Amino acid sequence: MSAESQPISADQFALAIHDLPIENLYSKAQELSNSISHLERSNQQLQQYIDSIRSDTTLPESTRQEGDKDCADAIQENNIVIERQKERIGLLKREVERRGGRWHEADSSGKVNGNSEEAVNNGSTTEAGRSTGGRLTDEELRRQMTERLGEDDDEGDGLHL
């Protein structure tokens, strides 16, 4: 990545997600949440390393006082990125709610409200029982595949393209 490249602004991000399908909004939020988790873990490891330098009595006092400047700088940069990513998750949430949906936070396992079977959107389904977006239950997936493949044919063999 070039040192000159800058992330898009929050306004540009909000505009870019305006027409995305709901499931894409949740997918992007999960991607951002995952990135935040990795950055926070990285910051913890970097901080532990800095702390180990500061507590290492075999090192000169000046080195212990300074710690590792590169690691400290990386922590600060990561914190900036984390805040930007949290802001984007907020924009994704606002977009879902603008469309009349209800926002559900996904936990680190990717489950929504502790139920991996629940659709990622607001849990609403159509009258036919199909999810209106997001993740599908096994039953919803089977139903959609049956509709698309036209299993009402008497010929059960082969793949129909």
From TrEMBL:
Residues 55-74, 91-161 are annotated as: Disordered. GO terms for biological process: proteasome regulatory particle assembly. Residues 63-72, 91-108, 136-149 have a biased composition (Basic and acidic residues). The keyword RNA-binding does not apply. Transmembrane segments: none annotated. InterPro entries: TMA17. Residues 22-49 form a coiled coil. Residues 110-129 have a biased composition (Polar residues). Keywords: Coiled coil. The keyword Coiled coil applies. Residues 150-161 have a biased composition (Acidic residues). It comes from the Eukaryota. GO terms for molecular function: protein-macromolecule adaptor activity. PANTHER family: TRANSLATION MACHINERY-ASSOCIATED PROTEIN 17. This is Uncharacterized protein. The lineage of its organism: Eukaryota, Fungi, Dikarya, Ascomycota, Pezizomycotina.
